[in-house]
Amino acid sequence: MSTRLDRINQQRQQKLERLRARGINPYPSHYHCRHTAWEAIALLEEKEAGAKKSQKVSIAGRLMAIRRMGKSAFADLRDRSGKIQLLFQDADKFDEKYRELFQNLDIGDIIGVEGNLLRTKSGEPTVHADEFTLLAKSLQPLPEKWHGLSDVDTRYRQRYLDLISNPDTKETFKARSQVITAIRQFLDQRGFIEVETPVLQAAAGGALARPFITHHHSLDQDFYLRIAPELHLKRLIVGGMDRVYELGRIFRNEGISTKHNPEFTMLESYEAYADYNNVMEMLEEMVSHVSQTVLGTTRVKFDKDTLDLKPPWPRLGLREAVEQYSGIDFVKYPTADGLRDRMRPRMKELGLEVDPEKNWMRLVDELLSTFVEPELIKPTFLQDYPVSMSPLAKTKPGEDHLVERFEAFIGGMEIANAFTELNDPAEQRQRFLEQRKERRTESEITETIDEDYLLALEYGMPPAGGLGVGIDRLVMLLTNQPSIREVILFPQLREKT
After folding, report:
1. CA dist 155 to 41, 109, 265, Å?
2. What is the radius of gyration, based on Cα positions, of the chain?
3. In the chain, what is the greatest distance between 2 CA atoms, to the nearest angstrom?
4. pLDDT-based confidence at 175, cuts 50/70/90?
5. CATH: 1.10.10.10, 3.30.160.70, 3.40.50.300, 2.40.50.140. Which one for 4-142?
6. Residue 444 in contact with residue 244, Cβ under 8 Å?
7. Which helix (H) or strand (E) holds 248?
8. What is the reported pLDDT for 70?
């Protein structure tokens, strides 16, 4: 038994065959489109203001509504700039080709239209369709509620339907593009050079994360999809490229949540002769600049809060922040077992268990993510982390148990991580070895040591400040989106069976 969708598809297929039988190509290769909907409306307003320019326009886009009225019809056409109304008047006066085409148009078809501009009695800007061309026949109907497709799973799996149906979605991704452009402009003006580093890497390094592994058949060698571009970018600092950055995809074989996707976009930058204080100042200036450039303001609405991104942002010590919000001074519990025992009653209050397999640094990170991060709504820097949590960061002078590292939080989520880079090759090797020893119990983590990076350090790397910014989360913040899936065009989803 056929369904309603089957019948609609069959009807559209029949229309396609009728058009072909009449010699009408339903998928032509080109159309000369001279105006957008927005430009056409602007021309009409100029005409109404007394301009004597020609008011004939040529536009193209998707039919989003058709209102047939006997031999005539009004239709809504949407292109990249917006929507405009079309008037197909008195089909009996069309020649045979246009009459056949008019009778076989459907919502969802992509057409090109030429005609003069007018405003209807209701005040609607309209193109009188003197000539029109089918550019792509739509064989599938748009969702029933094309004017507001709300099924989340459909929106993510079939992003093209989301973009067709929800103009706000398109605006979000326009804003994302503008954010990336503004970041590039900011860094370029400060003398940074944009570079590209390998996505396939022989050693998984630059961050603590489980990598994706693939095999190169010609070389008969396993490679890792990069979990960070850090070690390659710092090789460039060794080579004398004193200010570099990369905007690119990162891959981490870990959990999926409203803040995490297995592949995401990261900005990483490195500046020779700078430290984490310089990087803090640069980050708050950059985020403020991007917001001002894209939104026209540094005040943004995120969830229920209005946040001002204007510098300076407050700075808190990690130890003090964890104690303030959790009541636990982790420095007083230097072993994993001791800290775990101290955490249990606090976690139990929240209905949570403490993972018996986590080492000390991961327990500290759990305290941070559970108790501190949700409280950091206004832009805030947390600084000075334990050495064991930051194997690539330089020790803080006079405090050997701490490193010069900060994380930036806005809206209750981390948006950036940075530190003064460790450039002592002997100490870096020792940190790598200690890190591997510490994490041997975490069998799911692949741990490698990048020997070529250590060799590069032996040639001498100047003092440097490094920065990593989660672009997806920054876009979430600036577009007031609650989930990372709203700002990634094609988020990772479980395969639908």
Report:
1. 30, 20, 21
2. 29
3. 89
4. very high
5. 2.40.50.140
6. no
7. strand 243-251
8. 81
pLDDT at site 437: 75
Name the residue among 467, 473, 471, 468 with its Cα closest to residue 277: 467
Q: CA torsion 417→420→425→426, rounded to 10°?
A: -100
Q: Is 82 exposed, middle or buried (0-12, 13-18, 19+ CB in 10 A)?
A: middle
Q: Is pLDDT at 447 greater than 70 in this prediction?
A: no
Nearest to 89 by CA among 123, 60, 56, 113: 113
What ranges in 115-158 are assigned the alpha helix state H?
152-157
CA distance 362 to 341: 14
Options 3.40.50.150, 3.30.930.10, 3.40.50.1980, 3.40.50.10540; CATH for 164-314+378-486 is: 3.30.930.10
From-to residues of CATH 3.30.930.10 in the chain: 164-314+378-486
Give the type of residue at 22. Answer: R
Report strand pairing: 243-251 vs 213-216. unpaired
pLDDT digits (tens, 9 = 90+) for 219-240: 999 999 999 999 999 999 999 9
Residue 266 to residues 160, 227, 245, 250, 348, Cα–Cα distance (Å): 24, 10, 10, 7, 35
pTM for this entry: 0.93
Query: What length is written for the chain?
Result: 497
Q: List residues bridging with 262 in a β-sheet.
A: none
DSSP 286-335: HHHHHHHHHHSSSEEEETTEEEE-PSPPPEEEHHHHHHHHHS--GGG--S
In this structure, the strands spanning 82-88 and 125-128 are: parallel
Task: Kindly tell me if the per-residue pLDDT of 154 is higher than 60.
Answer: yes
Residue pair 294/479 in contact by the 8 Å Cβ criterion: no
Structure tokens at 481: 């989106």
217 phi and psi angles, rounded to 5 deg = -70, -40
Which pLDDT score, from 0 to 100, does residue 273 have? 98
Given a cut of 60, is residue 468 above it in pLDDT? yes
Question: Distance (Å, rounded) from C-alpha 217 to C-alpha 222?
Answer: 9
Nearest to 186, CA basis, from 467, 408, 392, 380: 467
Question: How far lies 295's CA from each of 82, 188, 301, 389, 475, in Å?
Answer: 19, 20, 11, 36, 12
Strand order across the beta sheet in which 221-225 lies:
200-201, 221-225, 213-216
Rounded to an integer, the average pLDDT of 128-151 is 84
pLDDT at residue number 442: 52
pLDDT number for residue 443: 46
User: 443 Cβ partners below 8 Å, 6+ apart?
Assistant: none
Instruction: Please give the Cα distance from 232 to 248 (Å, whole number).
Output: 13
Q: Alpha-carbon dihedral of residues 33, 38, 44, 47, nearest 10 degrees?
A: -90
DSSP 162-214: HHHH-HHHHHHHHHHHHHHHHHHHHHHHTT-EE----SEESS--SSSSPPPEE
